[in-house]
Design a protein that fits this description.
Blueprint lengths: L3 E5 L1 H10 L4 E7 L5 H13 L2 E5 L1 H8 L7 E6 L7 H6 L6 E6 L4 H14 L3 E5 L8 H6 L3 H4 L2 E4 L2 H10 L3 E5 L16 E6 L7 H6 L2 E3 L12 H16 L3
């Protein structure tokens, strides 16, 4: 039997049910939840043939250590490996829109980045294995289900991966507060990989050197920087805005 783990929250559980219902072994729903979200989840579980059990809040707290599970926990098998990054890029019918995270180790930040990447229609999120958070229950919950749908690739050598993207004519554009121009002042290519570093530290030197273009987000207030997920959202949605027909 494949190893399994717990998934928490309505968004995350429903996303797994839609993406891969056969991997969900059973769902535990708070017996006190009688609202529309609980009914929708119960209906989705029934249509997918997944067993749903009504249990006490105390039992759900046992799964999550007393945290915020929203009244639902699913036990799901670890998903098999996704298609490779190369296969993912080969399958695209439109210019790639990618998010590269260099040094984002906080699971809350990763979850938020996956959520914003999904919302902007990005095709994948890429991070180095040695300096990145992996997919976990916390990441899955914070991402509101995006961890189940957004391809997330942890690569052995980020610099080499960026070089490979360049060979595909994908521009590597880094968000850097030291850049001379803002992202609103430059021409942005359609095929683009946005690169963001960890808040405070920024990109590593080798990563920065791989960038074809460096831009900054204009800051008009008193704060000096943005959370990485917010910055990623600004960059990705600017690319999306330029792709939309006028």
């Amino acid at each position: 039997m494949k190893p399994a783990h717990a998934i928490f929250g309505f968004h995350a559980v429903l996303a797994r049910l839609r993406a891969d219902p056969s991997s969900v072994r059973e769902i535990f729903l708070d017996e006190n939840r009688k609202d529309a979200r609980a009914k929708d989840l119960a209906a989705a579980a029934e249509s997918s043939g997944v067993q749903l059990l009504r249990v006490s809040t105390k039992r759900l707290d046992g799964f999550y250590g007393g945290g915020r599970h929203q009244g639902v926990v699913a036990i799901a098998e670890e998903r098999g490996a996704r298609e490779s990054l190369e296969d993912r890029l080969d399958s695209l019918k439109e210019p790639p829109l990618l998010l590269v995270l260099d040094g984002v180790t906080d699971p809350h930040n990763l979850g938020a980045c996956l959520r914003v990447a999904d919302a902007a229609g990005a095709h994948a999120v890429i991070a180095p294995k040695d300096r990145a958070a992996g997919i976990s229950a916390v990441v899955s919950k914070v991402s509101s289900g995006a961890a189940e749908s957004m391809p997330y690739y942890m690569v052995t050598n980020l610099a080499r991966t960026l070089d490979d993207l360049k060979e595909r004519n994908i521009w590597i554009v880094g968000a850097d507060e030291r850049a001379q121009k803002t992202l609103y002042e430059v021409e942005l290519p359609d095929s683009i990989a946005w690169v963001l570093g960890a808040e405070g530290e920024g990109m590593r030197r080798l990563t920065r050197e791989r960038c074809d273009l460096l831009v900054k987000i204009p800051m008009r207030g008193s704060v000096g920087s943005l959370n990485v997920s917010v910055a990623g959202g600004v960059c990705l949605f600017e690319s999306l805005r330029r792709r939309l027909p006028r």
